[in-house]
Description:
alpha/beta, Rossmann fold, 2 domains, seven-stranded mixed sheet, binds glutamic acid
Amino acid sequence: MANKKEVKPKASAYTKDAPELKQVATNNHQGMFDAVLSRLDMAFSKLNPSYNFQQVIKSPQKQVMVSLPIMMDNGTLQVFQGYRVIHSTALGPSKGGIRYAMDVDIDEVKALAAWMTFKCAIANIPYGGAKGGIQCDPKKLSVGELERLTRAYTSAMSDIFGVDKDIPAPDMGTGKREMAWIVDTFSKIHGEDSPGVVTGKPLTLGGSKGREAATGRGVMVSCLEAMKKIGMDRKSATCAIQGFGNVGSNAARLLNSKGIKVLAISDHTAGIFNPKGIDIEAALLYAKENGGILKGFPGGKNISNEELLLADVDVLVPAAVQNVITEHIARKMKAKLVIEGANGPTLSEADAILFERGITVVPDILANGGGVTVSYFEWVQNKYGHYWTEDEVNAKHDASMTAAFESVWFNAKQFKTNLRTGAYITALKKLEKAVQYRGNY
Length: 441
Ligand code: GLU
């Protein structure tokens, strides 16, 4: 906690009066929810679901915005904005991560929540979709500030979250540490231990083996399945991975273990290319000992972000942020297969170009569904109070991801469309039935 005696706050030390504390938001996703709607329209035009259902699924069920006044370490007060959007509970309690980033806003959270609805439907797990976020730069906050912010957010959302209601998880900028603070705050407020209220927890608090690597593992399974379908030989295949956080680094490690040569990796500090293949174990070790970043990693020559996206490889895995595959990148990309590890990395306009160019895109709502799949396993284990081995978790995960891939591939072929629209169709078919059975009043 802040030592209030040491640093006296000014008479009014709110953000407005303390500009040095104000973290400037950079909004790079205007119209992200519109992009979801336009992709839904594309799927509606093929599937032709009822008009009533179209109305329902286009409208997020609940949107919550909170202001979180936090005492900073220097004794001043800063007010942060927090969000939680529940897009749909048609298939079960809503599920989705919490993101800490400067560009978080309601439009982004709405889009991400809708994607969670579709992702859970495709993964065939009994959840609806939600997403949350706090507009902040976690790298600029101390551990104490982050803890107070996370606990304040949980407290503000204590009526929204619930084991059978709405279950958060990690997303960009959050991890098991934040999930531990959430489960602790929620359990204290409700007066009972509630491990199942959040997933992605540390193992000792009821986390699941295999959860941390699960999203990267799902990327690997999706990649191998897609390679089989398009006849790409994995033993001679090369790939580039954008992002070396939880998703990118685990995807790199697992793809490499399957014989796919990773020629390029990057994070927000550096891009590295090695035509002979990057030593991924060395890169992982380097990042671990270098504050989690790749800057200075000596295993190849330095490249820009654009060079990574346009690298001469067979497979591109965007596993960092949204909106990186623009029309320009789509026109020049050399990869033949894109596996979307991040949420929303491809702009809608770029989709059409990639399709025309015969580039196969395994969409985010399928490719990165491994994380929420193992989140579901974690929740089931919490409910049972009985825990599985890592091999059991991985085997169930791989089977589930393979089945999801098959159903999306089947629908894409049947409706003569790309995998993205095929994925939306897979989700919408299931959701339409659920919405119909539930009825209206
Ligand atoms: N944040 C992750 C996602 O976008 C995981 C969500 C979860 O496990 O609930 O899929």
